[in-house]
Amino acid sequence: MHIAVLGTGAVGRAHAARLTTLGHQVTIGTRDVEATLARTEPDTMGTPPIQPWLTQHPGVRLAGFATAAAGAGLLINATAGHATLDALHAAGADHLAGKTLIDTAVPNDFMTSVDRPMPTLWGIPAPLLDPVGGDSLAEQIQRAFPETRVVKALNTMAAHVMVEPTALADGDHTVLLSSDHADAKQQTTDLLATYGWRDIVDLGDLTTARATEMLQPLYLALTRALGHEHHGLKVVR
Asked: Are strands 149-153 and 174-179 parallel, antiparallel or unpaired?
């Protein structure tokens, strides 16, 4: 399958690399190809420039958001939450219509003030959530692109765990799904199974994404407490 991964950061690269090993054609989408390729310094999260990475992964193509989305049968949103809607509008509603979009993003709020400075994790900004509680980023995407089949998944763990659950012990931990579209859930479930996920819990319609997006502070707290991102959640029943 031809899959578009929107976003060039650590999450996008993890998915792109894993998908190519599984035999998929992968295009990473970015806002400005020339600017992305010209970058020579790590980004704000410490992710190295993508040009050397692309050299190491010759099966992955880099293209603008619209070109990447147009040629794909399935899309993965790996953009930063605060930039997601702009990125998807750049991809184009026509290029997203009728397709499953797996949304892995967290609705980060980077707005700060004197009274509410940005919290940090190891000196790295750890933004608050917006929306939170009464809405979700996944629902905002679905409202903005009603002909796209949005599935919220993989937003409760680090990038390397998303694509290789057996990186944690024997992989016996849980990934959560939310969507209004049963066929899109099944397509996502099938893909996650190829990643190695065995415990996949369907939470219900897309409003349940509010709960999984609110797990981000817990993820950050665990990371701070453990001193690493090598952890996951398990639903015991």
From this structure: antiparallel
Q: How far apart are CA 100 and CA 180, in angstroms?
A: 11
Rounded CA separation 169/152 (Å): 25
HEC string of the chain?
CEEEEECCCHHHHHHHHHHHHCCCEEEEEECCHHHHHHCCCCCCCCCCCHHHHHHHCCCEEEEEHHHHHHCCCEEEECCCHHHHHHHHHHHCHHHHCCCEEEECCCCEECCCCCCCCCCEECCEECCEECCCCCCCHHHHHHHHCCCCEEEEECCCCCHHHHHCHHHCCCCCCEEEEEECCHHHHHHHHHHHHHHCCCEEEECCCHHHHHHHHCCHHHHHHHHHHHCCCCCCCCCCC
Measured between alpha carbons, how far is 190 from 168 in angstroms, rounded to an integer?
Answer: 20
* Model confidence, pTM: 0.92
Q: Name the packing angle between helices 137-144 and 84-91 (round to 10°).
A: 30
pLDDT one digit per residue (tens) for the chain, 237 residues = 999 999 999 999 999 999 999 999 999 999 999 999 999 999 877 899 999 999 999 999 999 999 999 999 999 999 999 999 999 999 999 999 999 999 999 997 654 444 545 555 555 556 688 898 999 999 999 999 999 999 999 999 999 999 999 999 888 999 999 999 999 999 999 999 999 999 999 999 999 999 999 999 899 889 989 999 999 999 999
Task: Note whether 118 and 110 are within 8 A (CB).
Answer: yes
